[in-house]
Design brief:
Length: about 220
């Protein structure tokens, strides 16, 4: 008997992602998918980023977690609108979940949508959500071998952040080796070292400038 093969799950996801992308472009909303392991500092980065952009960019956020609304609650006071997606047992966001979230967001009133993906270094990488760019995040406390151990996030992302730099004096993290491994996996990839808890530091300012430039370049594309 011929064994049926179900191989259209990602194809369907990609179709919905394209329609999300078209909807966001039509509303002139630039979209970032932020990826990183559990606790690397994604929500802390976004809290500080939204506070910095308060009088400059209108930002919506969409946060994926298996359970709780804690991250969306943390971001709600800084964002035009925050939407939590509870994924239940699923360890990544998919395009259909983002499609549902878009119905809760006032797209006409946004310049930027940031999606905080589920804390996971593996499968979120494979799911197109309709974003313009993927930003990958590692942090010093995870260890300097994580880029090499999780190459797909490094090759897929458009910018890499290395967070929790304030802890460098307390940890043995070989920044040279980490940088070399990122460079080997994705030549030319921009790597910004920063502390999300120190938004006035130079690294954080580089991140803010990167976002500004990305949003502006998108605005001229549409
Ligand atoms: N020292 C230091 N701590 C940080 C920094 N960024 C985040 N943290 C701390 O790291 C912990 C996790 O931060 P979160 O922002 O919740 O991390 P997350 O990536 O959103 O976590 P999940 O959504 O659960 O995957 C918190 O205790 C933060 O205060 C940083 O730059 N330096
Ligand atoms: Mg979080
Ligand atoms: Zn998953």
């Amino acid at each position: 008997m011929k064994v049926p093969v179900v191989d259209n799950v990602l194809k369907l996801n990609d179709e919905i992602a394209q329609s999300n992308r078209a909807m966001l472009r039509a509303s002139h909303v630039f979209c970032i998918d932020l990826l990183g392991g559990p606790g690397c500092g994604k929500t802390t980065l976004l809290e500080a980023t939204l506070a910095k952009f308060a009088n400059e960019l209108r930002v919506g956020v969409c946060v994926g977690d298996l359970a709780t609304t804690r991250d969306a609650d943390r971001l709600d006071r800084h964002a035009v609108q925050a939407v939590q997606i509870n994924t239940g047992r699923s360890c990544h966001l998919d395009a259909n979940q983002v499609k549902q979230a878009l119905t809760h967001l006032p797209l006409a009133d946004l310049d930027l949508l940031i999606i905080e993906n589920v804390g996971n270094l593996i499968c979120p990488v494979g799911f197109d959500l309709g974003q313009d760019v993927k930003v990958g995040m590692f942090s010093l406390t995870e260890g300097d071998d994580k880029a090499a151990k999780h190459p797909s996030i490094v090759t897929a992302c458009d910018l890499m952040l290395l967070n929790k730099m304030d802890l460098a004096p307390h940890l043995t993290f070989d920044r040279e080796q980490f940088r070399d491994e990122v460079g080997r996996l994705h030549p030319g990839l921009r790597l910004i070292e920063l502390s999300s808890t120190d938004p006035n530091d130079a690294g954080f300012v580089h991140w803010l400038n990167w976002v500004r430039t990305a949003v502006q370049s998108q605005a001229t594309l549409v």
